[in-house]
Amino acid sequence: MTYNESTGVCTLASVPRLDNFIDRFTKERQYLKGVTPPTLAWYKYSLQAFSTVLQHEYETGQDLKAAVIQRIRELKTQGRGNN
Fold it and tell me: What secondary structure letter does DSSP report for 8?
């Protein structure tokens, strides 16, 4: 998989399909680290929950952090986040 070079903080925005990245990430973790199937599922669902944040490029780390915090708030109001 080839990634486009980017000047922003979130480099996942340049990945053609985030689903491809998630699949590759979980396969690499399984192969390299030997993580368990429940851990793989956790990775998959966690990354999918933040896909709206990960699909954008951010100029600074602070902008990315603010977007992640906002997404956590949204998930909590939907009853999907940890308390």
Answer: S
pTM: 0.63
Distance of alpha carbon 36 from alpha carbon 49, whole angstroms: 20
The token pair that represents 68 in the structure block: 């992640």
22 phi and psi angles, rounded to 5 deg: -60, -45
b/e map 59-68, b = 16+ CB within 10 Å: eeeeebeebe
What confidence tens digit (pLDDT) does each residue in 17-36 have? 777 888 888 999 999 999 99
Parse the chain into domains and list their residue ranges.
11-77
- Residue 65 contacts by C-beta under 8 Å, 6 or more apart in sequence? none
